[in-house]
Amino acid sequence: xxxxxxxxxxxxxxxxxCLGCSKQExxxxxxxxxKAQYAxxxxxxxxxxxxxxxDDSNKSNLPIxxxxxxxxxxxxxxLPGKYKITMIPIPTSAGSMGGVELPPAGPIGxxxxxxxxxxxxxxxxxSSPWEITVLPDGxxxxxxxFR
Length: 147
What we know:
The N and C termini lie far apart (75 Å). The chain has 2 helices and 7 strands, in the order H-E-E-E-E-E-H-E-E. It has helices at 3-21, 114-121, and strands at 30-38, 47-53, 64-67, 73-78, 81-89, 131-134, 139-146. A 4-stranded antiparallel beta sheet has the order 3-2-5-6, with no helix packed on it.
């Protein structure tokens, strides 16, 4: 048996092992933009959006965006993956929630109006209906509709 017949396959196996051991680049944050609106198309303002990662690889990533302008638009950067999105009023001072009196999240009680009960659903990643998959190249013109 010649050395070249043994060395050729051995070199091929060595090259494949080296390629498999090479370090992969960690994912890079990508841009997300869009708007939040009511079912009638009116923009939502004065709120904070929090993107809660659903993938184990993103657990340390908690991107936040505010809906401060009059148009309900937001922009942020985050890692690609799946997220649940929550929404709460922007705090205006310590202990204040933007002039909106919010009861603690939990079971719906007497005395809450319909919009308040709906908002409660958007306060927790477990109950929020908003879910997004952030693509490796980012997402633009995401529309989040409050129903």
